[in-house]
Amino acid sequence: MAPAQVDATEKQDQEQVVPKKLPKGVVLGPDGKPCRTCTDVASWFAMTGGKPKQAATQPADITTAPRASTTTATLPADCPPDVEALGRSSWTLLHSITAAYPTRPTPQLQSETTSFLSAFGKLYPCWVCAEDFQTWMAKNTPRVSSRSEFGTWMCEAHNAVNEKLGKESFDCTRWEERWRTGWKDGRCDP
Ligand SMILES: Cc1cc2nc3c(=O)[nH]c(=O)nc-3n(C[C@H](O)[C@H](O)[C@H](O)COP(=O)(O)OP(=O)(O)OC[C@H]3O[C@@H](n4cnc5c(N)ncnc54)[C@H](O)[C@@H]3O)c2cc1C
């Protein structure tokens, strides 16, 4: 990036107004400013006074029970993600990686996978999420010796977050149906 561009970006960051009283749910970043990728869009709207659009329908999903606190505020799909959109996309990537993982990975791939998870835990753009994920991984060492082990470990990692957020736990015996083969009732078959 050219120096002038760097200046403009830094200036924009500095000009971000931080309201004195923050609504519940707004998480600050390490810089003391509201962290968009750590905050759900409804809380973000509450802070900015913006008008959220109502989500038309929630996606059908038999694997998670309906929640009392479902977020109805949405932004157009081409806006920066809030904590929920970031999470959904990230879990899709992580579970899909486990689905494509070999049944018998080489020692080198196992080592690279462990390194990837360590880097992912440090780089995850919601810092509070990242800290908790790192803490969880320190107590639950990644199991990467086979697809089955890795997929189940990832499901358990996701369930730890589900539990923290008060969401329904996912049945980890069914992770492959959700993320690799499609459900046995055939509805995911082309
Ligand atoms: C590493 C990480 C840490 C996070 N930490 C936080 C946090 O601290 N605070 C916060 O507010 N948000 C956090 N999130 C985001 C949060 O987990 C959700 O992604 C977000 O709240 C949106 O939830 P959702 O109900 O739409 O479905 P998601 O939880 O995103 O799940 C997407 C889909 O995955 C399937 N699924 C659900 N559970 C499992 C499972 N255990 N195994 C396999 N498949 C499953 C379901 O079909 C579900 O619809 C984190 C995300 C990641 C990737």
UniProtKB/TrEMBL annotation:
Major subcellular site: mitochondrion
Pfam families the record matches: Evr1_Alr
Domain of life: Eukaryota
Record keywords, A-Z: Disulfide bond, FAD, Flavoprotein, Mitochondrion, Oxidoreductase
Annotated localization: Mitochondrion intermembrane space
Residue ranges of coiled coil: none
Cofactor(s) for this UniProt protein: FAD
UniProt biased composition (Low complexity): 63-77
GO molecular function: flavin adenine dinucleotide binding; flavin-dependent sulfhydryl oxidase activity
UniProt catalytic activity: 2 R'C(R)SH + O2 = R'C(R)S-S(R)CR' + H2O2
E.C. numbers: 1.8.3.2
GO cellular component annotations of the record: mitochondrial intermembrane space
EC class name: oxidoreductase
SUPFAM superfamilies for this protein: FAD-dependent thiol oxidase
Region (Disordered) location: 1-24, 49-78
Stretches assigned to the ERV/ALR sulfhydryl oxidase domain: 79-179
Protein name as catalogued: Sulfhydryl oxidase
